[in-house]
Amino acid sequence: MTEVQNLNPTILNVADLPTRNRPSKKYSDYESGIFAAVPNPADFLSSDSEDDDLLEEPIDEQEIYDLIKLISDPEHPLSLGELAVVSLPDIFIKPTLPNVPGSPLQTVTVLITPTITHCSLATVIGLGVRVRLEQSLPPRFRVDVRIKEGTHSTGDEVNKQLGDKERVAAALENGALMQVIAKMMETCQ
Amino acid sequence: MAKSQITLLSDLTPPSLERTWLTSPHPTLPIVATCSSDKTVRVYSLTNFKLLSTISGGHKRSVRTAAWKPHVTGESVLATGSFDATVGIWRRWDNYGKNESNAAEVEESEAASDEEDEEWRFAVLLDGHDSEVKSVSWSPSGMLLATCARDKSIWIWEDLDDGDNNFETVAVMQEHSGDVKCVSWHPTEECLASGGYDDTIRLWREDLDDWGQVACIKGHSGTVWFLDWEGPENTPRTSAEQDTSSLTSAWRSQRSLSGPRLLSCSDDLSIRVWRRLPKEFSQMGMSSSAATGIPSIIRPTGADENWEEDAVLPHAHELAIYAVAWSRRSGLVASVGADGRIVLYEERFVTATDSEAMETEPPMLKTEWSIIAVVDGAHGIYEINHAAWAKRADRGAVDEAEEQEVLVTTADDGSVKVWTVQR
């Protein structure tokens, strides 16, 4: 990490990053477009009935995004959200076993866009995202972190490593690697 | 369709509080060893499902794998492999359960040594691998121990059995191009199978004092997570209308040429069965050097083997399959993985209806694999890392004349569950 690989990355304004309460310009089309008249489903879900407190609040893509957007890039003093390494449209939540009715298992897929196609830190960034999600989400979630297709020269290799449970488990016991990951997480609240 | 049933018999208690990777049943005693991320190995009883002892202090990181040495009398010997890159050998005198029945006797005669007999003795640490050890396996005689690691190598160690815990490195094989995830010895021969991150399965034999690769099977399109061998006496199941004795004897004579088959499971969500081609067939086919790519001048051509795909088991898993277990008692296959599912498969003879199959001499025996039971969420929401068959030893089994078996599954939350199967 002595040599910065991408000297001039594209940086997004923090104010423009999507949030739940204040949609960014990119998504605000919905509000003025044909859906303007449709009430936001969130308005119904947040009714103040007492029973609601007992139910597990469903976890959506925005919440996943909020968990990972503040992770720091290992070589820039910027977050993965600001660098658009992670972005809301590249996060997907799907039932893991769609054919098993009532199965609580859900798969979170996060597609990562490295700032340059030969970034050697792609694996570390991916590992950071995976570790962050595994530590924050309930165990019923299966975390699938991969490089977005066509954005990295050795994407398949990186994906195979990130998908290997045994390698990820061993990495968590590797002190030097975990120091790097911990540093990346410092900026998460 | 699935007529059989898998029923939970018991949990092993108390469980580890961290991820457990694998549970190895003892070859003769009703005990199992469970490897945990908390750096310990827990030994549980299959008689009352309780924790007997915890082996700790030997490894600095997760214990990933363990295997009991076969054919040891009066003593149990366990090999453990850890993410700390070492392999540990542990010994303990066999007196589990004996203390309960004749406790008084033991106290009188062995009062002095009683205390230390309870303990697992750390015998030796095998140092050699550069990174996490993933799998260990004892040869059928117990003379050789195979170990493999993320460093892409397989080591074969000889237990010198000299009373001084000396092991000698017999071979280091480095043909795999990625982590070697699993090693497993042939049930009767000194032939080792390995599988790994390079998606291949390789077979290894000793030839003129040198261990070398005799086959490389490229059939999976993802990491090969686990391997298991068919029992030497296994025969597929026959249905009521089939002539059991003639099918069985025909099967045995065909089998004597190719030997036990190999079972593999993978990240590609498939489970495959592999069969060695009998020597005369394989030599008629391609020249054997073509099979391994090693020029015959380096390895005598006689050593190379041709393995072909015998079957692909019905698709049943939605995420990576971490383990398969082929029962030596019933011939049933169990598989488990990241989707939290246990699946049981059975192989049956198919009655040949087309005349073609009848004309060939000897008649080619056909079999078919089918799913006979599925348990979803077998360990709740957790991933299942391992499955193994063991002899049933609790009181519920006493009445039956026939030897019963249980399936032992090991999961991410530290739980180990024991299941019975009703066919």
From TrEMBL, chain A:
Transmembrane spans: none
GO biological process, one term: protein maturation
Domain of life: Eukaryota
Alphabetized InterPro entries for the sequence: FSCA_dom_sf, MIP18
Membership in a protein family: Belongs to the MIP18 family.
Protein name (database record): MIP18 family protein
Source organism of this protein record: Penicillium argentinense
From TrEMBL, chain B:
SMART domains the UniProt entry points to: WD40
Keyword Electron transport: no
SUPFAM superfamilies according to UniProt: WD40 repeat-like (SSF50978)
Keyword terms of this UniProt record: Repeat, WD repeat
Record PROSITE patterns: WD_REPEATS_2, WD_REPEATS_REGION
One of the GO biological process terms: iron-sulfur cluster assembly
Biased composition (Polar residues): 235-252
Signal peptide start and end residues: none
Disordered: annotated segments: 233-252
InterPro entries: CIAO1/Cia1, WD40/YVTN_repeat-like_dom_sf, WD40_PAC1, WD40_repeat_dom_sf, WD40_rpt
WD repeats: 56-90, 126-158, 173-204, 407-423
GO cellular component term, pick one: cytosolic [4Fe-4S] assembly targeting complex
Family of this protein: Belongs to the WD repeat CIA1 family.
Protein role: Essential component of the cytosolic iron-sulfur (Fe/S) protein assembly machinery. Required for the maturation of extramitochondrial Fe/S proteins.
Name the record gives this protein: Probable cytosolic iron-sulfur protein assembly protein 1
Organism phylogeny: Eukaryota, Fungi, Dikarya, Ascomycota, Pezizomycotina
Record gene name: CIA1
